[in-house]
């Protein structure tokens, strides 16, 4: 079910996905409810770390901040620029996509 | 001292600042050590909320995640896209600049 939803999102956004992935280092897709990795181009340790720290901690913290500041607002997308690369985070309802570029 | 540093940053980035502010709803500059508002275009309540939740909670959480994932990396910039607008966050050493656009 989740895989079908994910495939639909990827298909609907095929053009954007392709454009993003052209410059990407890699990506991780994780299951929000379970906190598990669904798809990844990284090794287990990196995938798990990104899922835990970004999808599991940072996204909920960002969502809480946005909602606390305006109860009618919600988080749409997160970009974390670092010295070395950028994390692009798309928080969907069932899963979270993190692209490193 | 802090005000001089801030003025230097603004002056050095005058062109970018002007370009950013053209589309901005407003901004808050806060003191990292004290957690206080230095400059703001918003009312006290909004400025305090942004300083507390974004500069005080979200930025340290993002920095920790980035460093935990790669100890030689560091947070450079944060963009929080919401349904209504976007928060652009520049975490400097002494102060944090949050622009809403």
Description:
The structure is a homodimer of 101-residue chains. Chain A has 101 residues and is α+β, with helices and mostly antiparallel strands. Chain A has one domain (2-100): Dynein light chain 2a, cytoplasmic (Beta-Lactamase). Chain A contains 3 helices and 5 strands, in the order H-H-E-E-H-E-E-E. Chain A has helices at residues 2-12, 14-22, 44-69; strands at residues 26-31, 36-40, 75-82, 86-91, 95-100. Chain A has a 5-stranded antiparallel sheet, sandwiched between helices. In chain A, a hairpin with a 3-residue loop joins strand 4 (86-91) and strand 5 (95-100). The longest helix of chain A has 26 residues, at 44-69. The first copy, chain A, is globular, with a radius of gyration of 13 Å. Chain A starts with a helix and ends with a strand. The mean pLDDT of chain A is 89. The A-B interface holds A 46, 49-50, 53-54, 57-58, 61-62, 64-66, 68-70, 72-84, 87 and B 46, 49-50, 53-54, 57-58, 61-62, 64-66, 68-70, 72-84, 87.
The 3D shape of chain A can be described as: globular
Q: Structural class of the helix and strand makeup of chain A? A: alpha+beta
The Rg value of chain A, from CA coordinates, equals: 13 Å
| Rounded mean pLDDT score of chain A | 89
Q: Biggest interface and which pair forms it? A: A-B, 29 and 29 residues
Please identify the oligomeric state: homodimer
Largest sheet of chain A: 5 strands, antiparallel
Helix content of chain A: 40-55%
Structural domain tally of chain A:
1
Domain Roadblock/LAMTOR2 (chains A, B): 30-100
Protein name (chains A, B): (Mediterranean fruit fly) hypothetical protein
Family (chains A, B): Belongs to the GAMAD family.
InterPro entries (chains A, B): Roadblock/LAMTOR2_dom (IPR004942)
């Amino acid at each position: 079910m989740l895989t079908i939803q994910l495939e639909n999102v990827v298909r609907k956004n095929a053009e954007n996905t392709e454009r993003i992935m052209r410059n990407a280092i890699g990506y991780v897709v994780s299951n929000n409810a379970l906190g598990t990795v669904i798809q990844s181009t990284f090794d287990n340790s990196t995938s798990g770390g990104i899922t835990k720290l970004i999808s599991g901690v940072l996204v909920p913290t960002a969502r809480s901040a946005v909602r606390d500041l305006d109860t009618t607002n919600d988080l749409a997308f997160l970009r974390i620029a670092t010295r070395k690369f950028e994390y692009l985070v798309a928080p969907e309802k069932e899963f979270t996509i993190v692209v490193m570029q």
